[in-house]
UniProtKB/TrEMBL annotation:
It comes from Phytohabitans houttuyneae. This is Peptidoglycan binding-like domain-containing protein. Residues 55-106, 138-191 form the Peptidoglycan binding-like domain. Pfam families: PG_binding_1 (PF01471). Keywords: Signal. The lineage of its organism: Bacteria, Bacillati, Actinomycetota, Actinomycetes, Micromonosporales. It comes from the Bacteria. The keyword Signal applies. Residues 1-21 form the signal peptide. InterPro entries: Peptidoglycan-bd-like (IPR002477), PGBD-like_sf (IPR036365), PGBDSf (IPR036366).
Length: 317
């Protein structure tokens, strides 16, 4: 049980999550307008659709969202798979059917190359394998930009090549994810996690325990960043668990058995954060035997407005 508490504290330290942003729809150029218009004219579709031209419009739009698939005109397993992925990222019913809500969302692409968000605008990305197609387009350029944010060079261009795959594996290793070079839902979400900033009010950790004070501004930011989408919340819990475990294993002075604790992490931390944010307070987290403390804290997460909060928040809190 103590391992669970330690993982939760580490999650709070990772803290500053990227919010799932709403992106405005817009044009993507005349060369692609016909595909979007054709998809809208065709209307809803499902597995076994008998209009191959309509399915080709759909597959071209999925390719624009990064789907590494061939345009065959057949609405079968592969097309259904990427429709489900897109529905999951948008919080839609995940049945692989192109119903009206899915069609409306799919046919409205972000306005401009800097408006794409891998979490909601793209599906899984990969390089070509054998005769299978690879990903290309704005999702790939966005991927390279996100990798650069994490200090990982990923080459250039809108085609998912070997450089991009190698960079993805490097990122996955750092994040504690399987190093497969494919940008699936976990990797796309992890690319938007941010590392915590140093805090002067943080008392720190020893091999016996931790005392952490998260400043007011960071507490408010973290609390507001938790997504409402249940699928994304659950996925976020998995990604954070993996990232936490990777960082704990990299700290030789901290000996802890690491395990993923699923949505328990999100629900526990979210509740405490919301309380502190409403009170414009810091978040105080104590676990184990914190520095200077003789009492054992299995886990204590409380609002804090004391001197350490003032030090952690500075003049901007």
């Amino acid at each position: 049980m103590r391992a669970i508490w330690t993982v939760v504290v580490a999650v709070v330290l990772l803290g500053l999550f990227g919010a799932v942003a709403d992106t405005d729809a817009g044009d993507v150029g005349d060369s692609f307008a016909g595909e979007l218009d054709g998809l809208r004219d065709c209307g809803p579709m499902r597995w076994g659709e008998a209009r191959p031209e309509c399915v080709r419009h759909l597959q071209q739009v999925l390719r624009a969202r990064g789907a590494p698939m061939d345009v065959t005109g057949n609405y079968l397993r592969e097309t259904t798979r990427y429709i489900k992925e897109f529905q999951a990222g948008r919080g839609l019913h995940q049945d692989g059917v192109l119903d009206k809500p899915t069609l409306d969302a799919l046919a409205h692409l972000p306005d401009g190359p800097d408006r794409w968000d891998l979490r909601r605008d793209c599906v899984s990305l990969r390089q070509p394998t054998g005769e299978a197609a690879g990903s290309q387009g704005s999702c790939v350029t966005t991927l390279r930009a996100r990798l650069a944010v994490h200090g990982i060079a990923a080459g250039r261009g809108a085609t998912f090549d070997g450089d991009a795959a190698a960079a993805v594996r490097t990122f996955q290793q750092r994040a504690g994810l399987p190093q497969i070079g494919i940008v699936g839902p976990q990797t796309r979400l992890a690319l938007y996690l941010q590392l915590p900033r140093p805090s002067p009010g943080q008392a720190g950790c020893t091999v016996r325990g931790c005392l952490i004070i998260i400043g007011r501004a960071d507490t408010r930011g973290i609390a507001s960043a938790f997504p409402d989408n249940a699928f994304v919340r659950a996925l976020l819990a998995e990604v954070i668990s993996a990232a936490v475990c990777a960082r704990i294993r990299a700290m030789p002075a901290v000996h802890v058995a690491c395990q993923a604790v699923g949505s328990y992490i999100i629900d526990t931390v979210a509740g405490a954060l919301n309380t502190a944010a409403r009170r414009n307070a810091c978040l105080r987290v104590a676990v184990g035997y914190p520095p200077g403390q003789r009492a054992w804290f299995p886990l204590q997460v409380t609002p804090d407005n004391g001197p350490k909060c003032a030090a952690a928040s500075g003049s901007s809190g």
